[in-house]
Amino acid sequence: MDVMGDKATLFETGRFVQPPEPDEAGEVAEEAVEEVRQRLAAEAGDVEAMSVLGAMLLRRGDLDGAEAHLRAATAAGDRAAANNLGVLLHQRGYADEAAGWWRIAAVAGSAAAAHALGRHHRERGDEPAAEYWLRQSAEQGHALGAYALADLLEHRGGAGAEDWMRAAAERGHREAAYRLARALDRKAVSEGESGTDNGVALLEQAEQFYRQAAARGHRRAALHLGAILEKRGELREAGRWYLTSAKDGEARAACALGFLLRDAGDTESAAVWWLRAAQDGDGNAANALGALHAERGETQTAERWYRAAMDAGDDNGAYNLGLLCAEQGRTGQAEQWYRRAAYAGHREAANALAILLLQGGDATGAEPWFSKAAEAGSVDAAFNLGILHAGRSEDAVALRWYERAAAAGHTEAALQVGMARLRDGDERAAERHLRCAAGGGSAEAAYRLATVLDARRPPEPAHELGEAVHEKTECEEWYERAASQGHRRAQVRVGMMAAARGDVVEAARWYRVAAEAGSRNGAFNLGLLLAREGSEPEAAVWWTRAADAGHGRAALRLALVYARRGELAEGQRWADRAVSLGPAEVSERAARLRDALRQELSA
Fold first, then answer.
1. Rounded Cα distance, 499 and 88, in Å
2. Which of 12, 133, 456, 532 has the most CB within a 10 Å radius?
3. Is the pLDDT of residue 15 over 60?
4. Spatial distance between the Cα atoms of 328 and 324, rounded to a whole number of angstroms
5. Nearest to 174 by CA among 206, 214, 137, 142
6. SS (H, E, C) 542-591
């Protein structure tokens, strides 16, 4: 007869009275002495001794010896003997006769027999009878009866399943505690998604029952308890439960333990547990081993583990094989593996396949895969669809995909939405999206947000007495954040703000940083600053760099410098350059200067 529960044995079903299991040699001797004592009492006609002796022999597997004593005790009206006789007959394959004795014991008030009889009827498909007897057992406080009743009610979708599962758990049934915890865990997730406050309380209850089951040796409960503790940041205790579960043979726990060790910097120990989990068929662990060997440059070993992950049914294996091939320039094989994973529903593989096709010039083939990945929840694919449609000047469609990606937290998508809203004149919506993008680390978004805030900034009040006290505004903070991230225009702007408040050193520092990064405005402004400080030769160096990069004002400044030095031909050359570079005002001034220099040269 099959039994229910994690690692359950027949002796844990409560169908017969079982003496304590001996742990030491002395206890074995005591049991032998006790058996002799019970045998003597049974031979003298003691009914209770017959029952106990029969249970002892049954536990030892001596069915022939047990049956005679159990039948004798049962005939004398001992209900425990009737229950154990049912167990014996069930072991011999006489299920119907066993049920008859269980019924006798159950009617006499044996909760264990009522449980066994209920299980018998359920196996026969007679659920009403099963429920009746299991309820009799459960209502007498029998933990296994409560668990079996809860399992039956849950299977039928009947009311009261959770209450009886809780009753069994509270009476020490570890599988009931685990299943109750799983149910509470699922409820907590559902409550969290609906936005109610009850989810936290449910999760606390789930943790309590996971802990109860894990403490009794339930390996899956230990795994889930470890996951809860890891999520909460209690990594040391999480590791202990993962280790307990992994030692009991739970591959997922071994895999999770490997990730904890890797994050702690112990890659070698992580690899040991990943290997153990992968050998037990855990695809995630096989992928982790593949990634580890790929990082070490051991591509053949990495590929072997990725294939093992794929064979274990983990689609990440095919996706990772695609990544490995793509890194090696094996584009055809990469496409093959991406397709395999994508057809299996791997959204990131679908996105990667679309990118590969797009890079190969097949935009038509790429679009359906981007769409499939985006519909499956890939934020990157939604953003890529935005880029694809924007490249076709389908701005409205592109914006919809950008908004979808931005809503899921994609920084660059939020930037694109912000810029689109700015073009539409919706400054408030633009600011909201730019803040999201800037907060996500986009330097461009930080700069554009700063420009929006800067445009709203009122002029600084004039101070009649004393020096103005400068308080940094929010727009300056965003300019500085963008500048510190390497945004050249922001660096120039920060330099200008520093110069405006008289901090020449700070202004020069930011202009120089921008100029050295290739900003022609930075180079021009640095030249102005140096010229004002009396360093015109150095200023000319930076103006030359700016002019060479197409800065018309810098070219005009150089023309004036060379004209003052008397190097008229060089001055005329830079004036010509300024005329061509513009803008209009600069071109006009440069033309006048050029004509004057030409006249001077021809005089």
1. 97
2. 133
3. no
4. 6
5. 214
6. HHHHHHHCCCHHHHHHHHHHHHHHCCHHHHHHHHHHHHHHCCHHHHHHHH
Q: What is the pLDDT of residue 86?
A: 85
Distance of CA 283 to the CA centre of its chain: 17
Per residue in 554-586, pLDDT tens? 999 999 999 988 898 998 999 999 999 989 999
Indicate the residue type of 259.
Answer: F
Q: Which residues of 39-76 are buried (b: 16+ CB within 10 A; e: fewer)?
A: bebbeeebbebbbbbbbbbbbeeeeebbbebbbbbbee
Specify the amino acid at residue 25.
A
Please answer whether residues 353 and 342 qualify as being in contact, where contact means their C-beta atoms are separated by less than 8 angstroms: yes
Give the N- to C-terminal CA distance of the chain in Å, as an integer: 120
Tell me the two tokens of residue 221: 């409960």
Which residue, among 41, 110, 19, has the nearest Cα to 85 in the 3D structure?
110
Report which residue type is found at 440. Answer: G
CA angle 21/23/24 to nearest 5° reads 135
Question: Which token pair is 601?
Answer: 């040269």
What is the spatial distance between Cα 80 and Cα 74, in angstroms, rounded to a whole number? Answer: 8
Residue 183 and residue 163: Cα distance in Å, rounded? 12
Which residues have CB under 8 Å from 233's CB, separation 6+? none
Q: How far is CA 558 from CA 307, 536, 555, 573, in A?
A: 65, 10, 5, 10
219-248 pLDDT, tens digit each: 999 999 999 999 999 999 999 999 999 999
- Who contacts 196 (Cβ-Cβ below 8 Å, separation ≥6)? none
